[in-house]
Amino acid sequence: MEQQTGTGQEEAQTAHCDWHPSVETRLSCSQCGRNICTQCLVQASVGIRCPECGKTAKMPTFDVQPTYYAKAVGVGVAVAIGGGVLWIIFNAIFGGFGILSSIPALGVGYAAGEFISRSVNAKRSKGLAYIAAGAVVGAYIISLPSSPQVGFFGLIILFVGIYTAVQRVK
Ligand SMILES: [Zn+2]
Ligand SMILES: [Zn+2]
């Protein structure tokens, strides 16, 4: 730190910007506390920062924030329950056709991907992919007691449904 410039008595009332020594300011960096002025402050998600601290505090545009995950989980649960119930109804009508009862997996997969994607403004992440996959599996488990035995082919369709959901948000 270099010696302060100007008159020492003023120091208590008036601070000068650390980057622009001629500019008086009352602002300070929320991270390091150094004085900054309106010319050099950096707007961060947690307040204003000096140019130095601001470099490491850019708005996280590509990160999916916790609130988005909360929304995605809510939508995922809704799709799992709604899809599961529709699936049970589907089975009640078409259950006798065996393999046909796997078809809702595709619809649930599409719905899970679509609705979760919309709820997070089309953001994508690995976490969202797990939530989307979980929604399809959840609907499958809910419908399971009403489903006829469809074996391997049914599992393949289930995985296509999961894949569809995951691709949308991954
Ligand atoms: Zn700082
Ligand atoms: Zn400044």
How would you describe this structure to a colleague?
By secondary structure, the chain is mainly alpha-helical. It has two domains: 8-55, no CATH class; 66-169, no CATH class. Helices cover 51% and strands 8% of the residues. It has five helices and six strands. The protein has helices spanning 51-55, 66-94, 104-119, 126-143, 151-169, and strands at residues 15-16, 24-25, 27-28, 35-36, 42-44, 47-49. The strands form three sheets. It has a two-stranded antiparallel sheet with strand order 1-2. It has a two-stranded antiparallel sheet with strand order 3-4. The protein has a two-stranded antiparallel ribbon with strand order 5-6. A hairpin with a 7-residue loop joins strand 1 (15-16) and strand 2. Helix 3 runs antiparallel to helix 4 and helix 3 packs parallel to helix 5 (151-169). The chain is rod-shaped, with a radius of gyration of 28 Å. Residues 6-11 have low confidence and may be disordered. One zinc ion binds at residues 29, 31-32, 34, 49-50, 52-53.
